[in-house]
Specification:
four-stranded antiparallel beta sheet; Rossmann fold; alpha/beta
Length: 244
């Protein structure tokens, strides 16, 4: 579904990604782990063209979508690949319902009635129907992040990218967001998740990729990564994050 070929990303003289090659397959949950500053979030942002690679190619469904392509290609890529950020990014002046129905109306040209019907269905699934007329400032962080997830779902993406979706939350709010993500995984949604939640990676991930210094040092099943990692740097990272 998504493929990165020899992707390099530079900011000035700083090379953040170093010839990344990876594929994301339909129905797969890929979990990206690694130390802060290793390039995980930058890697994620290449996948839906929030940032263009300095060199290399990004392909979606076999078609090259990076580089000098028509704006229509970029727009369609953004429609296919949704993203959930650390900081929720809800419109503060819109109610919960307005936040959810805005993009389907503007981008997908759905009627307000159609977008509203689907939004209420999504809100019901996460138990937040009563918050439909509330503004983001009145919600907890966990509630805002769940709204952000279903706002992305309202666009019917083929893939959802998550950039450390629980890192800005208080510990007691983390589980309610992870529950929504686990349910999405069970439903067959293709997901790429950057996270420090190792329990989630173990339980839900089909594949875990360890990124360090702008490179994918190792990728395998959760069991092999967490119990039988081949790379010394992977073993060192896991020992520190799990046991300290």
């Amino acid at each position: 579904m998504i493929e990165l070929r020899n992707v390099v990303k530079k900011y000035g003289n700083n090379t953040v990604l170093k010839k990344i090659n990876m594929k994301v397959h339909d129905g797969e949950v890929d979990v990206i782990i690694g130390p802060s500053g290793s390039g995980k979030s930058t890697l994620l942002r290449q996948m839906n063209l929030l940032e263009q690679p300095t060199s290399g190619e990004v392909l979606v469904d076999g078609d090259v979508v990076s580089g000098k392509v028509k704006s229509e290609v970029t727009r369609k890529t953004h429609e296919k690949i949704g993203m959930v950020f650390q900081k929720f990014n809800l419109f503060p002046h819109y109610t919960v319902l307005e936040n959810i129905i805005h993009a389907p109306q503007v981008v997908r040209h759905e009627s307000k009635a159609q977008a509203t019907e689907e939004a209420l269905s999504l809100l019901s699934q996460i138990g937040l129907t009563e918050k439909k007329d509330s503004y983001p400032a009145s919600l907890s962080g966990g509630q805002q992040q769940r709204i952000a997830i279903i706002r992305s779902l309202a666009m019917h993406p083929n893939v959802l990218l998550f950039d450390e979706p629980t890192s800005a939350l208080d510990p007691e709010m983390v589980e309610e967001v992870l529950k929504v993500m686990k349910n999405l995984a069970k439903s067959g949604m293709t997901m790429v998740v950057v996270t420090h939640e190792m329990g989630f990676a173990k339980q839900v991930g089909d594949r875990v990729l360890f990124v360090d210094d702008g490179q994918i040092l190792e990728e395998d099943t959760p069991e092999k990564i967490f119990e039988h990692a081949q790379h010394e740097r992977t073993r060192d990272f896991i020992s520190k994050i799990l046991y300290t």
